[in-house]
Amino acid sequence: MAAPARRLCHIAFHVPAGLPLARDLQRLFGFQPLAVREADGWRQLALRSGDAVFLVNEGAGPAEPLYGLDPHHAVPSATNLCFDVADAGAAARALAALGCSVPVPPVSMRDEQGAATYAVISSPAGNLSLTLLDRTGFRGPFLPGFRPVPSAPGPGWVSHVDHLTLACTPSSSPKLMRWFHDCLGFHHLPLSPGEDPELGLEVAAESGPGGLRLTALRAPAGSAVPTLVLAESLLGVTSRQDQVEQFLARNGGPGLQHVGLYTPNIMKATEGVVGAGGQLLTPPEAYYQQPGKEKQILAAGLEPSLLARQGVLLDGDRGKFLLQVFTKSLFAEDTFFLELIQRQGATGFGQGNIRALWQSMQEQAARVQEA
């Protein structure tokens, strides 16, 4: 591995001036302002909930925004992952030696709270770039060049980022998996027993051709980097785009489709999001009527009718359960959504939940296409 990632520092978004993403993250999901920078045509606002940090780059300018790139992208989207590395300069040189493009060579930033060095590399995942950051010499709340923003404690719905899901073109997952392995030290994480890394987990459509392939990657041992999930459509002949194909079309290619945010109490978090006006995906009606589902929910110490009312999915057995709920897109272009996830001993993603998400997103994609 050329540049082992030690920790996810933040996820960056690029949106047009006036788009209310930062406001929605605060109002709907409990994120709080952390630090801000306004210069060169950009307003960059960092927001935090627990250890999850989002950087909203709003506007456009003649220079690149600090700690990232201006992707000159036609639609708002999540465009950058920032990883902590031991030596940003050495990491950039090592990746360049592997053939990676380094559009922003190592840059050192300093203010009264210390210094940090970063470089930006291009990834093979569409408009997604990666920032390599070394801020061991910085003692401020975010990064040099940003002004701290005082804020009250948030509701605590989100504690950290659980996983990142990239929407990929068909048959591209093996190539992406090798790139993340060689460049950042990620390894295959099986989602089912005996899974072939080249094939991943295949989720067939309930009726007709097509389906979904998922390949999960874990970061180097000892790091604090979320699981990376590669999602691609299974080839099939169908007249209607599935949700991955729809993302690729609307985003103009591969990219970060959604972020899974860990919550210590998904029922409380979901109630708060809905109460604030957030919109969640509705699971298939038959999901909660599956044989054994009610017993499974009760075994987890939860009320089936409450889960159904709030749209929370549950999977697992033997005292290990996984709970998930998914938002509708945060952008009108349907290029990014969030997931809230709670783990009660479970470490995977739950094949039953994956199939239910697939179906509910297919139904949502069909409604979007018909609109």
From TrEMBL:
Alphabetical GO biological process terms: aromatic amino acid metabolic process
Entry similarity comment: Belongs to the 4HPPD family.
UniProt entry keywords in alphabetical sequence: Dioxygenase, Iron, Metal-binding, Oxidoreductase, Repeat
Keyword Iron recorded: yes
Source organism (scientific name): Neophocaena asiaeorientalis asiaeorientalis (Yangtze finless porpoise)
Molecular-function annotations in GO: 4-hydroxyphenylpyruvate dioxygenase activity; metal ion binding
Name of the protein described by the UniProt record: 4-hydroxyphenylpyruvate dioxygenase-like protein
Required co-factors: Fe cation
Domain (VOC): residue spans on this chain: 7-135, 160-328
Classification via InterPro entries: 4OHPhenylPyrv_dOase, 4OHPhenylPyrv_dOase_C, 4OHPhenylPyrv_dOase_N, Glyas_Bleomycin-R_OHBP_Dase, VOC_core
